[in-house]
Amino acid sequence: MPRWDGDGESPDVFSVFMMVSIWFSVFFLLFIILES
Q1: In the predicted model, what is the mean pLDDT of the chain?
Q2: Residue 28: HSE in the Cβ half-sphere, 13 Å Cα cutoff
Q3: CA separation for the pair 27, 36 (Å, rounded)
Q4: Which residue among 10, 17, 21, 23 is least packed, with the fewest CB closer than 10 Å?
Q5: Residue 10 pLDDT level (bands cut at 50, 70, 90)
Q6: Which pLDDT value is given to residue 8?
Q7: Region of 8 on the Ramachandran plot (φ > 0 left; ψ -120 to 50 alpha; else beta)
Q8: pLDDT higher for 14 or 10?
Q9: Taking the mean position of all CA atoms in its chain, how far away is CA 14?
Q10: In this model, does residue 6 exceed pLDDT 60?
Q11: Per-residue b or e along 14-34, where b marks 16 or more CB atoms closer than 10 Å to that residue's CB
Q12: What ranges make up the beta strands (E) of 1-36?
């Protein structure tokens, strides 16, 4: 995954959305496993 090196290029919205979705899914699964 490309890193954002402050060279004036804005981060890709789709990449940010995908990364947030993956982390949300991971935390959601951990929550279910710990609660069960």
Answers
A1: 83
A2: 6
A3: 14
A4: 10
A5: low
A6: 57
A7: left
A8: 14
A9: 10
A10: no
A11: eeeeeeeeeeeeeeeeeeeee
A12: none
Going 11 to 22 to 28 to 34, the CA torsion angle's sign is negative
Return the residue matching tokens 């090196």.
5
Q: What residue type is assigned to position 6 of the chain?
A: G
Please work out, in degrees rounded to the nearest 5, the angle formed at the alpha carbon of residue 12 by the alpha carbons of 28 and 26. 10
Q: How many CB atoms lie within 10 A of CB 9?
A: 9
Mean of pLDDT values over 21-32: 97
